[in-house]
Amino acid sequence: MNAGDGSKMQRLLIMIISGMLALNLTACQNNAGESSALAESTAALETSAASSEADETGSEQSTTEPSTSENTSSTEAATPQTGFTTAVSEEYKQSADKQGEVVELKYGSLDYLRDSAPITKTAYVYLPYGYDENDSETRYNIVYLMHGWGGHAGEYFEYTPTKNMFDNLIANGDIPPVIIVSATFYNENSSTEFSSSIAEFREFHRDFEDNLMPMVEGKFHTYAASMSAEDLKASRDHRVFGGFSLGSVTTWLEFCYDYDYIKYFLPMSGSCWYYGTYGDFQTEKNVDFIQQLVKDNDLDERGYFIYHAVGTKDAVKSQTLMQAEEMLNRPDVFTPEHYVFYQKDGGYHDFDAVQEYLYNALPMFFEN
15 in a domain, yes or no? Predict the structure, then answer.
């Protein structure tokens, strides 16, 4: 989007205001502004979740849930493709006895949006309890997380219950010790105005490939044998990228650009804008692109997994449901092995919901 286009900016501001108003209106799921297709999608997802509960008691599975192939993994068999998230245990929000450490990392990058001039960026890195920089034998999975509109590096660790949750997930064996990076698509020259933010995250994949990933994984002990593109690609099975709101849109773009480097994706409250933008959600075209990308790059065989999530009272629920519905309507392509969609019942567009998505998704990424 061209930030200098006055007419586009005017329309964008109108859409933003409408989105903010939607935050107070979304308590009514089937309001007059929601299309019949979305209403049907929500009903189907709720029916699917209910059928999953029925499965546990031996009842027949609802036909609204895409069928799985005979060669499904134990993960597929145990995890319904759609449903509702589980609330974070209160115990996991408390301080753990064994706490990880958050460190600041400055790294060199380029201002890709403007003149590619050298700049310095910041990321914050969570190191699990027991991490030893002198122990080069122990290797760690790594999770990259991206903020939303107006956010900043490190914010995933500033919300104390979320950092505590990471500690407790590891301490209780729900996930292995993991390195977590809270990065940013902004830099020292960035404006946080909405259209400028869109322009910034569209260029982030270049920073990720050329600077952030090599810098972080060259400093800390991940599964990458070296910082060569070949070794970073070879370690894709140990890498996750997730994000919230505009960070969710960034996550979808990371899938589009960096599937060679990343196996697991966690888009939270947002859809793919490879084509289109806010208010111009070219859903079918984007899903067509993702489907072709999967086919052309043998991703079914190489493996990928997307945990897509949104709250039932989230202001951007509609765009997220549109994409979920389109992907679920292609069950032969987006099987439960590769794509699941979960909703937080009563969830808003906030960090409480983000914490719950992470709580539910991280154990699924790392169970193997």
Answer: yes
Q: pLDDT tens-digit profile of 322-342? A: 999 999 999 999 999 999 999
Q: Please count the structural domains in the chain.
A: 1
Separation CA 355–CA 90 (nearest Å): 12
Q: Work out the widest C-alpha separation in the chain, in whole angstroms.
A: 62
| Residue 32: how many other CB atoms lie within 10 Å | 6
- Of 193, 337, 348, nearest to 263 by C-alpha is 337
Q: Residue holding tokens 């301490």? A: 171
- Interatomic CA distance for residues 301 and 283, integer angstroms: 25
Taking only the tens place, the pLDDT of each residue in 94-112 is: 999 999 999 999 999 999 9
Domain with 21 in it: what CATH number? 3.40.50.1820
Q: Residue 279 — φ and ψ, nearest 5°?
A: 85, -10
User: Within a domain: residue 243?
Assistant: yes
SS (H, E, C) 286-328: HHHHHHHHHHHCCHHHHCCEEEEEEECCCCCHHHHHHHHHHHH
Q: Where are the beta strands (DSSP E) in the chain?
A: 82-84, 101-110, 118-127, 141-146, 178-183, 239-244, 264-268, 276-277, 280-281, 305-311, 339-344
**Cβ 226 vs Cβ 251: under 8 Å:** no
Task: Pick the closest to residue 238 from 219, 213, 270 (CA basis).
Answer: 213
Residue 1 covered by a domain = no
pLDDT for 363 beyond 70: yes
Confidence (pTM) = 0.82
